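The records we work with from here on pair a chain with its fold. Each token is a code from a learned vocabulary of local backbone shapes. A record is reproduced here so that you can trace the correspondence yourselves:

_____
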Amino acid sequence: GDARTDSRFYDAIRAGCIPVVFDRLRASAFSNAVNYTGFVVMADHVSNVPTMRQLMEELAAMTLEEKARRRTHMAAISPLLNFDPSVEPNAFLMIANELAARAAV
């Protein structure tokens, strides 16, 4: 796509997959309320085959404890990215809160 965000990122989070982000300028919803740095692996330094190999080695070397820590963080914020209005908190409420905060400025 031509946007700096897409649903695959959020689908991966909801599925418990640790996202690897190659673009630091990627737009992330609710960034004022969600600490993405607690679980996202930033890979904006990858620009060629050697740096991709290095990233793959780093990911393979990630300990089970580190993976569990990241997944625990994702599980805590996952409901905020859900559009099911029967569950609170949810993305609808997050959008309403963000719009209210912008209107107050």
